[in-house]
Fold this sequence. Notes:
There is one protein chain. By secondary structure, the protein is an alpha+beta fold. The chain has a domain at 7-37 and 47-69. Helix content is 30%, strand content 11%. It contains 3 helices and 2 strands, in the order E-H-E-H-H. The protein has helices at 16-26, 51-60, 64-69; strands at residues 7-11, 30-34. Strands 1-2 form a two-stranded parallel ribbon. Strand 1 (7-11), helix 1 (16-26) and strand 2 form a beta-alpha-beta unit. The radius of gyration is 18 Å and the shape is elongated. It starts with 6 loop residues before the first strand and ends in a 20-residue tail after the last helix. The structure holds flavin-adenine dinucleotide.
Amino acid sequence: MTNKHTSVLISGASIAGPALAYWLARSGATVTVVEKAPALRTGGQAIDFKGETHMELLRRMGILEEIQRRQTGGTDQTVIDSYGKRITV
Ligand SMILES: Cc1cc2nc3c(=O)[nH]c(=O)nc-3n(C[C@H](O)[C@H](O)[C@H](O)COP(=O)(O)OP(=O)(O)OC[C@H]3O[C@@H](n4cnc5c(N)ncnc54)[C@H](O)[C@@H]3O)c2cc1C
């Protein structure tokens, strides 16, 4: 797909906005991303990437190795009841 003469305005520079901008720009579109927040937030949470679709997407964006290099090493959490029976996965 080529978007040589397409201009796109994306509102929001969180996760989805820049990711969409990346793919649209790669296909030739001229992309502008606007964000209403005055600055980057100082806090954040870990992001969970799981499964082949996530990995393949990150690989195609050329950022998989960098993400793996910076991983925090968290593991899955399981909530159990007082008998030790799993109640969430
Ligand atoms: C309490 C909470 C905890 C979460 N924990 C996790 C977690 O641990 N792991 C995880 O993977 N996900 C988590 N999520 C989900 C995750 O935050 C969302 O799935 C993700 O942020 C969605 O990304 P987005 O880019 O679609 O939207 P958003 O992150 O909501 O970004 C929208 C952006 O658009 C901007 N914006 C809004 N209106 C305008 C406007 N008019 N003009 C310009 N800019 C505008 C906003 O300032 C914002 O930066 C959590 C969500 C919540 C609420």
